């Protein structure tokens, strides 16, 4: 039995219900295979070094993610205890290739499982303790999960898996976007869960793309039948037009956007003219 | 006669020189079994599009869920559906978003099913009474007309809206208006908000009275949101009854959340799959706490990683077992005594409510939904295929007046213990 931690990268500019739903669908799909248990999920927003036009500072994107995951300061709804925010990638000044993000979390997990720490090999025991104290939230949480797991199983198999949409998978074929060795490493060593809309054809892509085809067993394709055309792009456009984005992303996130006037929105929720109760 | 489609996909009406802006209240009917983000989003999209067109001012919205007398299998009780709607529309945790959509309980709590046109008539009666300054009285407009109850919260609210409208109009009339400006008499009306699937159901023989379709299109108007598989523009072109009034039919072709359906959600719940982020958390919480729609309570509440994973796994692997739970056709969640039955049983009575049916009762939830197919849930009961006896009853009720509706057999009755006489029919 393999224990999976799903990692999803992306801009999250802003986070939407579709992003959150992606985790839920992936988890259901993995469990259904009978080969996996899902230990948790990590959302890893991209750093500002990505330099994409219109990308809000990570400070905002991180806060909105916290609100969406039910752990922000004024969130409603039930906190998602199995999806956590990972800030390692976001706080780095340079952009980090996806494969390196996966490597980072896998290495930390491997160290937890082996009950060693990279620094311990080189430094005195005191250093290890201080490193753990400074550990980020998601790593501390992973550490507790791994500890619980090790209480049940002697040598649990815990792997990171990439979670993404069909557009990311298709971007494999676009020259210059991915390093070949990264793509191979992702499909060979980690595996992917890819969420697609009905009508797109990810199966054909995996079938025809030579580089990843040998590892197609590791690429799990999930169809999202309750089609949600909610993209961050659409959200930004709608906000710019002072139109409602309600029910496409969590209310506390919308509230944050209006209070801070983000994405060209005016500072308040759209109202009925003169007749709001 | 090309229709312009601007970037939000709102089909622009032919631009008229008429400067009057029409005051509307959006009314949406349906099962809301359960309410989803799509249902809520429809109101937001419609409000924005109507305002953007420059032709309308949206005063508010009303959601009117169907009564239990609908007789649809798998329909949770009105009490549950109303409460889930109330949770979905509740004052938000964050300050700011205006509460502009009301929950209309009148239709849901009636003993019999109410045609959509009559629901519109009822609320319009309140508006008209306030506009003309008269007391509420029986509406004109055919059988089943209802006078507006003085104690109905939505009627009171509608009258308040009209009063505010009047005072605003009065104030501006005192301003220095140009003599050229035409002053139209103050008006406000309901407009039916629905999906393209409901519009398409106009074509099904016997489901809608022609007179009702015409009244809705001519006197009320509709805001129709696209659903995949339906072509509302084409339908309006082809439907003789409503085509003359196409300027009253606003079609919104581009919007998100357009395919989240309640039947998909019920299916996922049955299968122990996640429905999170398709409907408000508070509604999901309610569904699990009350074990509605065949869901497994431990899936939701055991949300912490490994333990919840066990729960999720149990939910998924035992979804087949869950589907075998026999439930009363009225939506009672009482489990039938005895072992799970694999097939329909004829003539059995529900212990909780005494409901009795002679056909297709107590099927597993999965079998019921499969039999019915993916009928869109925003349709009023008219659209639901399945039991042809239901359809016959619909046709009967459409053609009889209110007095003879009372003679309909027990199937159209409410969810409670029946008299022995009724249950025998």
From TrEMBL, chain A:
Keyword Manganese attached: no
Protein keywords: ATP-binding, Mitochondrion, NAD, Nucleotide-binding, Nucleotidyltransferase, Pyridine nucleotide biosynthesis, Transferase
GO CC field: mitochondrial matrix
Recorded GO MF terms: ATP binding; nicotinamide-nucleotide adenylyltransferase activity; nicotinate-nucleotide adenylyltransferase activity
EC number(s) given by UniProt: 2.7.7.1, 2.7.7.18
Cofactor: Mg(2+)
Keyword Lyase: no
Biochemical pathway: Cofactor biosynthesis; NAD(+) biosynthesis; NAD(+) from nicotinamide D-ribonucleotide: step 1/1
Annotated PANTHER family: NICOTINAMIDE MONONUCLEOTIDE ADENYLYLTRANSFERASE (PTHR12039), NICOTINAMIDE-NUCLEOTIDE ADENYLYLTRANSFERASE (PTHR12039:SF0)
Task performed by this protein: Catalyzes the formation of NAD(+) from nicotinamide mononucleotide (NMN) and ATP. Can also use the deamidated form; nicotinic acid mononucleotide (NaMN) as substrate with the same efficiency. Can use triazofurin monophosphate (TrMP) as substrate. Can also use GTP and ITP as nucleotide donors. Also catalyzes the reverse reaction, i.e. the pyrophosphorolytic cleavage of NAD(+). For the pyrophosphorolytic activity, can use NAD(+), NADH, NaAD, nicotinic acid adenine dinucleotide phosphate (NHD), nicotinamide guanine dinucleotide (NGD) as substrates.
Protein's name according to its UniProt entry: Nicotinamide-nucleotide adenylyltransferase
UniProt lineage: Eukaryota, Metazoa, Spiralia, Lophotrochozoa, Platyhelminthes
UniProtKB/TrEMBL annotation, chain B:
Domain called Cytidyltransferase-like: residue spans: 27-267
Catalyzed reactions per annotation: nicotinate beta-D-ribonucleotide + ATP + H(+) = deamido-NAD(+) + diphosphate; beta-nicotinamide D-ribonucleotide + ATP + H(+) = diphosphate + NAD(+)
Gene3D superfamilies: HUPs (3.40.50.620)
NCBIfam families attached to this UniProt entry: nicotinate (nicotinamide) nucleotide adenylyltransferase
Swiss-Prot/TrEMBL GO biological process terms: NAD+ biosynthetic process
UniProt-listed Enzyme Commission number(s): 2.7.7.1, 2.7.7.18
GO molecular function, one term: nicotinate-nucleotide adenylyltransferase activity
Pathway annotation: Cofactor biosynthesis; NAD(+) biosynthesis; NAD(+) from nicotinamide D-ribonucleotide: step 1/1
Source organism per UniProt: Macrostomum lignano
Protein name: Nicotinamide-nucleotide adenylyltransferase
Family stated for the protein in its record: Belongs to the eukaryotic NMN adenylyltransferase family.
Biased composition (Basic residues): 415-425
Region (Disordered), start-end ranges: 372-425
Keyword ATP-binding set for record: yes
PANTHER family named among the record's database cross-references: NICOTINAMIDE MONONUCLEOTIDE ADENYLYLTRANSFERASE, NICOTINAMIDE-NUCLEOTIDE ADENYLYLTRANSFERASE
Entries under SUPFAM superfamilies matching the protein: Nucleotidylyl transferase (SSF52374)
């Amino acid at each position: 039995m393999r224990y999976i931690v799903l990692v999803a990268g992306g801009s999250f500019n802003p986070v939407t219900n579709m992003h959150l739903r992606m985790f839920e669908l992936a988890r259901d799909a993995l469990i259904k295979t009978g080969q996996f248990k899902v230990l948790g999920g990590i959302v890893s927003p991209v750093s500002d070094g990505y330099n994409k036009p219109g990308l809000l500072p990570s400070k905002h994107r991180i806060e909105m993610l916290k609100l969406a995951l039910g752990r922000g300061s004024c969130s409603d709804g039930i906190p998602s205890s199995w999806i956590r925010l990972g800030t390692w990638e976001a706080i780095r000044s340079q952009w980090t290739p996806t494969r390196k993000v996966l490597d980072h979390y896998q290495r930390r997990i491997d160290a937890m499982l082996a009950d060693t720490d990279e620094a311990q090999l080189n430094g005195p025991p005191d250093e290890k303790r201080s490193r753990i104290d400074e550990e980020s939230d998601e790593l501390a949480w992973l550490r507790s999960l791994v500890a619980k797991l090790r209480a049940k199983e002697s040598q649990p198999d815990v792997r990171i898996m990439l979670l993404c949409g069909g557009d990311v998978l298709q971007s494999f074929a676009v020259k210059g976007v991915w390093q070949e060795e990264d793509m191979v490493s992702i499909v060979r060593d980690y595996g992917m869960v890819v969420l697609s809309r009905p009508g797109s054809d990810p199966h054909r892509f995996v079938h025809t793309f030579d580089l990843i085809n040998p590892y197609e067993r590791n690429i799990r394709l999930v169809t999202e039948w309750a089609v949600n055309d909610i993209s961050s792009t659409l959200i930004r456009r709608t906000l710019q037009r002072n139109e409602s984005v309600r029910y496409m992303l969590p209310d506390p996130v919308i509230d944050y956007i209006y209070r801070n006037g983000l994405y060209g929105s005016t500072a308040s929720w759209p109202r009925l003219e003169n007749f709001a109760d | 006669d090309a229709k312009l489609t601007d970037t939000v996909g709102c089909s622009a009406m032919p631009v008229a020189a008429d400067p009057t802006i029409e005051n509307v209240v959006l009314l949406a009917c349906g099962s809301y079994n359960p309410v989803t983000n799509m249902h809520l989003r429809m109101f937001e999209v419609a409000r924005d599009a109507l305002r953007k067109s420059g032709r309308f001012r949206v005063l508010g919205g009303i959601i009117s869920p169907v009564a239990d007398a609908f007789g649809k299998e798998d329909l949770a009780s009105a009490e549950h559906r109303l409460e889930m709607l109330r949770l979905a529309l509740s004052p938000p945790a964050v300050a700011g978003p205006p509460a502009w959509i009301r929950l209309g309980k009148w239709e849901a709590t009636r003993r019999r099913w109410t045609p959509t046109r009559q629901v519109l008539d009822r609320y319009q009666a309140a508006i008209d009474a306030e506009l003309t300054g008269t007391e509420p009285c029986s509406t004109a407009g055919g059988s089943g007309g209802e006078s507006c109850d003085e104690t109905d919260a939505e009627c009171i609210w509608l009258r308040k809206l009209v009063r505010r409208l009047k005072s605003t109009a009065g104030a501006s009339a005192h301003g220095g208006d140009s003599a050229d400006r035409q002053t139209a008499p103050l008006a406000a009306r309901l407009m039916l908000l629905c999906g393209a699937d409901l519009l398409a159901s106009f074509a099904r023989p016997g489901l809608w009275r022609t007179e009702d379709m015409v009244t809705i299109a001519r006197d009320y108007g509709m805001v129709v949101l696209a659903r995949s598989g339906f072509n509302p523009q084409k339908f309006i072109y082809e439907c003789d009854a409503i085509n003359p009034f196409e300027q009253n039919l606003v079609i919104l072709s581009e919007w998100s959340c357009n395919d989240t359906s309640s039947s998909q959600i019920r299916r996922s719940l049955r299968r122990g799959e996640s429905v999170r982020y398709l409907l408000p958390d508070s509604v999901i919480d309610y569904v699990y706490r009350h074990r509605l729609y065949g869901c497994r309570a431990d899936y939701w509440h055991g949300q912490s990683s490994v333990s919840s994973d066990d729960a999720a796994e149990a939910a998924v692997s035992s979804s087949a077992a869950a589907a075998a739970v026999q439930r009363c056709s009225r939506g009672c969640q009482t489990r039938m005594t005895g072992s799970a039955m694999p097939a329909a049983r004829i003539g059995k009575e529900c212990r909780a409510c005494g409901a009795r049916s002679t056909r297709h009762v107590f099927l597993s939830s999965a079998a019921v939904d499969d039999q019915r197919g993916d009928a869109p849930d925003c349709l009023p009961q008219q659209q639901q295929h399945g039991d042809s006896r239901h359809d016959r009853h619909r046709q009967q009720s459409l053609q009889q007046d209110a007095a003879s509706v009372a003679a309909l057999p027990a199937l159209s009755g409410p969810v409670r213990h029946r008299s022995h006489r009724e249950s025998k029919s």
